[in-house]
Amino acid sequence: MHALSEYTRESAAQIDFRTSPEQYRHWTIAIDGPIARLIMAVDEDSPHAPGYELKLNSYDIGVDIELYDAVQRLRFEHPEVQAVVITSGIQAMFCAGANIRMLGISSHSHKVNFCKFTNETRNAIEDASLRSGQTYLAALNGTAAGGGYELALATEYLMLIDDGNAAVSLPEVPLLAVLPGTGGLTRLVDKRLVRRDLADVFCTVEEGMKGKRAVQWRLIDETVTRSKFDERVTEKALEFAANSDRPTDEPGIKLERLERSEEENEIRYPFVTVTLDRHGRYATLEIQAPDDDAPATVDEIKKQGVNFWPLAVARALDDALLHLRFNEPTLGMLIIKTSGEGGRIAAYDALLTENREDWLIREILLYLQRTYKRLDVTSRTTFAFVEPGSCFVGMLADLLFAVDRSYMLDGQLDDRPAPTIQLSELSFGALRMSNGLTRLETRFLGDDESVGNAKKLVGQNLDASAAMDAGLITFAPDDIDWEDEIRLLLEERASFSPDALTGMEANLRFAGPETLETKIFGRLSAWQNWIFQRPNAAGESGALKLYGTGKRAKYDRGRV
Amino acid sequence: MHALSEYTRESAAQIDFRTSPEQYRHWTIAIDGPIARLIMAVDEDSPHAPGYELKLNSYDIGVDIELYDAVQRLRFEHPEVQAVVITSGIQAMFCAGANIRMLGISSHSHKVNFCKFTNETRNAIEDASLRSGQTYLAALNGTAAGGGYELALATEYLMLIDDGNAAVSLPEVPLLAVLPGTGGLTRLVDKRLVRRDLADVFCTVEEGMKGKRAVQWRLIDETVTRSKFDERVTEKALEFAANSDRPTDEPGIKLERLERSEEENEIRYPFVTVTLDRHGRYATLEIQAPDDDAPATVDEIKKQGVNFWPLAVARALDDALLHLRFNEPTLGMLIIKTSGEGGRIAAYDALLTENREDWLIREILLYLQRTYKRLDVTSRTTFAFVEPGSCFVGMLADLLFAVDRSYMLDGQLDDRPAPTIQLSELSFGALRMSNGLTRLETRFLGDDESVGNAKKLVGQNLDASAAMDAGLITFAPDDIDWEDEIRLLLEERASFSPDALTGMEANLRFAGPETLETKIFGRLSAWQNWIFQRPNAAGESGALKLYGTGKRAKYDRGRV
Question: Are strands A143-145 and A93-95 parallel, antiparallel or unpaired?
Answer without folding.
Answer: parallel
